UniProtKB/TrEMBL annotation:
Source organism of this protein record: Brassica carinata
Protein name as catalogued: Molybdate-anion transporter
Entry keyword Cell wall biogenesis/degradation: no
Pfam families linked: MFS_5
An example molecular function term from Gene Ontology annotations: molybdate ion transmembrane transporter activity
Length: 460
């Protein structure tokens, strides 16, 4: 069965290379040299930030287990990370809009470096502090950098279509190629050089420090709404009003929460799905294969976003339906093939089919990221971008915390079925969004600060 892994990886690699090399003028966007320089600078920073994140991921659980903590204690540490992201995410998002997105990006680097340092301590309380810091950093990573990019792109007067090019390349490199290299580099540090499970966290801190230096030396500051008379409560109220009064923003938030909730749940489920009887599977190689499938998706997204048709609101319906179908495979295979009772060995025949389905799901993930970034840039108002984006993450983090807390309470097929239903609902909501967008506009966009005044005339 070992050959199977190499065949899947090889086929995916060939398809990705063919897609990238076969791009013609219709698939490419003609840009200026100024934009190319701006884009490359952002891609370098984003790749360094993602390297700092990807290096840590595969070794967090492993590190905690080497310190002797039980599965329940490790679960509490993970819940603390998602919980802190939920509790503090909206606060740091609002501060980013008010105090500056560049400052927020630098804060991300400092916070995550401190989180990496805590991994040197075997003390549970110190590690808990590290998880809280990591949760805050995650909120900044998935809001402040994108908010800075969109604002800076518009401030420099670049064409709106060029933004999708930066998004697709950021996912291709940061969420694909960098993830593969980080996984291999982490494996090299831990196993080949025998530096121990803390080594990837030290390497991550170094990459984050380099990225912070690039930000400080080459990025300019931009803001959402820097008004002096607006406190956090006022910003929260404004963001809530924007979500409640604009169905497009509300739908976008629901779609994002449903898809990302399913995606994070999949992260916890794919290992037991492929090795239900403790089969020996190459986790690192399978992870690299998933990332290659994600690169395939982002390469497809780059082609789609460079064209005027089909619109992103249209093709994402299909992406959600395909992803829902791919996560039904464990349920289908479980009903068609009797589970083996033999412990150990290599991956089963059923596992091979499931792995192919999971690769399709990861390709959908690669399509999802640049596409949702494109839609967020179109529909979320600039003055509260980071705040609203972190509002979107509240239901996501609640959902992941509930799943983590009850991960052993339900059969794995029930969990996959739940994720598939969520993705199907996301497809329905995406269709609703497309219908709203296609309606002829009857009035102009009301800026968020004017809307706040209309909603609450006493709040000036």
């Amino acid at each position: 069965m070992e050959v199977f892994y190499y065949v899947v990886f090889g086929v995916l690699g060939i398809v990705v290379a063919a897609l990238e090399l076969s791009k013609n003028n219709k698939d490419r966007i003609n840009t200026s040299s100024a934009f190319t320089s701006f884009k490359n600078n952002y891609l370098v920073v984003y790749s360094l930030m993602m390297a700092g994140d990807w290096l840590q991921g595969p070794y967090v659980y492993y590190l905690y287990s080497t310190y002797g903590f039980s599965k329940g204690e490790i679960g509490q540490l993970f819940i603390a990370g998602f919980g802190s992201s939920m509790l503090f995410g909206t606060i740091v998002g609002s501060l980013a809009d008010k105090q500056g997105r560049k400052r927020a990006c630098v804060t991300y680097c400092i916070t995550y470096i401190l989180s990496c340092i805590t991994k040197h301590s075997p003390q549970y309380k110190v590690l808990m502090v590290g998880r809280v810091l990591g949760g805050i950093a995650t909120s900044l990573l998935f809001s402040s950098f994108e908010s800075w990019l969109v604002a800076e792109h518009n401030k420099r007067g670049f064409e709106q279509q060029w933004l999708s090019l930066t998004f697709s390349k950021a996912v291709f490199f940061g969420n694909g190629l960098v993830a593969i290299i980080a996984g291999l580099f982490g494996n090299l540090l831990v196993h080949s050089f025998s530096l121990g499970p803390v080594a990837p966290f030290d390497a991550a801190a170094c990459f984050l420090a380099i990225g912070m230096a690039v930000i400080l030396s080459s990025w300019s500051e931009n803001y959402g709404d820097p008004s002096e008379n607006k406190d956090l409560i006022t910003q929260f109220r404004g963001a809530a009003v924007a979500i409640a009064s604009d169905e497009k923003i509300a739908l976008l938030g629901a779609i994002q929460s449903l898809f990302e909730g399913s995606m994070y749940t999949f992260v916890f489920l794919w290992t037991p799905a492929l090795s239900p009887n403790d089969e020996e599977i190459p986790h690192g190689f399978i992870f690299a294969t998933f990332m290659l499938a994600s690169m395939l998706g982002s390469s497809l997204a780059s082609r789609l976003l460079s064209r005027s048709s089909p619109k992103v609101e249209s093709y994402m319906q299909i992406v959600f339906l395909v992803s829902a179908a791919s996560l039904l495979l464990p349920i289908i295979m479980g009903s068609l093939i009797a589970p083996s009772k033999v412990k150990g060995g290599g991956i089963s025949f059923s596992g091979c089919f499931q792995l192919l389905g999971f690769c399709i799901f990861e390709a959908c993930v690669g399509l999802f990221w640049p596409s949702i970034m494109k839609m967020r840039s179109q529909y979320i108002p600039e003055e509260a971008r980071s705040t609203i984006m972190n509002f979107f993450r509240i239901p996501l983090n609640i959902f992941v915390c509930v799943v983590l807390y009850n991960v052993n309470a339900f059969p794995i097929t029930i969990m996959f079925g739940m994720c598939s239903i969520f993705l199907f609902v996301a497809s329905i909501l995406q269709r609703r969004l497309m219908l709203i967008v296609d309606k002829p506009k009857t009035n102009d966009w009301t800026p968020l600060n004017e809307r706040n005044t209309e909603e609450d005339p006493l709040n000036i």
